[in-house]
Amino acid sequence: MGKFSGAALLGLTLLMLPGCGSSSSSNKPIATKPCTLNSDCSADLVCSFGLCHSQCKATMDCPAGQRCVSDNDVNVCQLPVETTCNFNSDCKDPLVCAVDRQCRDQCKADRDCVTGQICAQTGVCAETSEVNSSGMLKGAVDGGSGGSGGSGGMGEAGAAGDANGGAAGATGNCTEGDACVPDAAPCNAGTISCASGSPVCTDTGKAADDGTACGTDKVCSSGTCTACKVGSDCLPDPKNSCATGKMACSGGPACVSNGDAADGTNCGTNKVCSGGTCTACKEGDTCIPTDTCKAGTLSCSAGPDCVAGGKLPAGSTCDTGKVCDSTGACLACIQDGACSPAGADCHQGKQDCSKGPNCADLGTNAQDGIACGGSGSNQFCSAGTCQACSP
Does this model's pTM top 0.70? Predict the structure, then answer.
């Protein structure tokens, strides 16, 4: 009886020992506690998508097998029950069903995704390990007609059919001849072959339509994947740097005219745009303003403009045969030209323009008979004096 009790005790002890190689943490089910508020979750979790989640900044912050996704204003680790999909409606808003039948964040550029992820060609966020060299999601499922995006096998629509586009090919059906994108040649047209029993994208060797997306900020052009960022600045006329343009990509890369560059835009060394033309302009250079008896300084910030400053010194040339006087007026003056001295109409005079118009009296008599005394005075010079003319 004692031996039996010892054997029984040994068996009981063995049953209580953990099994070889077992791991309580790896077999532990991931909690999916429903919630409405953060207070419904434990202290280290937040309420998102109606369930309690761990917060994250990048996927590396999450447990193995979980992806960091965005729920508008908070990033959380996506639970396994939230990952797979056949339709957009299978995913929690704002996530969508991607071509690999995974619920993912939507994007237009890498900065729309959480840290460490990139925007795949089909407009969804993915880890770098989840895309191929062409920027397309690995594991894409080609299928029947897609949802709001169009035919299956191209972009998100092939995996995410909905009421707008019918079945998404998630049933596993293979439609011979459906369009697809070859992984190795994203700018070639592909067609689905079902000969193997599974959808296989066959390269037709024909160029895809110009404007077909082939990567982030890239589109097809004559069969080549070319950089093209919609709305980025470009030059519609390479010979005119003062004509602006914006990139359009829907039909292949094209620079569409967007009017003239703003006056004052730099277009070369000591050059700025003015009325759509590149014009010489060196800031601070001297120039001649509209008021030619004032100093001028060139301003280029809004296009070439000669800004008037102070008065020029008397005697400064202000036009052909003219100089500035002491008041800043531009008056006729020909150096050493004949003139009538003020107050001595019947004397000979010579112009001196060096300090403004000035008629110097030479002290010699003017020719007799020359009119003097002003217009209508009926006076004439005689022996150096101005005298009335008697009938």
Answer: no
